[in-house]
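Hey, can you fold this?
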Amino acid sequence: MGSVNSIREELLAYMNRNQMIHSHFAELSGINSGTLSRILKGNHPISMAQLVAITAGMKLPEDYFF
């Protein structure tokens, strides 16, 4: 469970560093804006497909969170 929180924390930090609102990151990553909002609030588990999309949206190596 701690690793999921770390992913959320890293995503939030990335968005803050880049002065990005969640709807912009949703567009970049291809994740539905409402789903991304629930992920950021901790109300939605992160699927493998969403994890891949988040990683790509953050321009990180494909295996960064694995």
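Oh, and this one too while you're at it.
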Amino acid sequence: MQRGSDRLSVHRDDEMKHELQELLRSGHPTRTEDWQDPEPPADDDPRVFRGPVVAGHSRMSTLESVRLELARHLGRTAFPAGPGELAGVLRHDNAPDDLVEAVRRLPRHARYGNIQQLAETVTAAS
């Protein structure tokens, strides 16, 4: 005989699972109050919140997306810097490999003073 802190018996627990089975499989929210459900993303939310934005893919076609992804991984202290230094900072911050490669492929002699300049160059190159 099991002695635990369960308030319900095993039979009642199985009965409750059976009652909720259809509700859980339906894919609809299980909360009774609508205000407790998470809100869907808005149309103007940045794509970063729907997953990582990486260089060389169609999702990274806008300058804003590139700038947001770079800002997630680069701080203000990283600038001014060249592509090699910035790629090292991105790699150290576990940025997506495609983004690191896009920055590393930039001309070695170039220097970037801020994220905007870097984002413009990365979007023009891809």
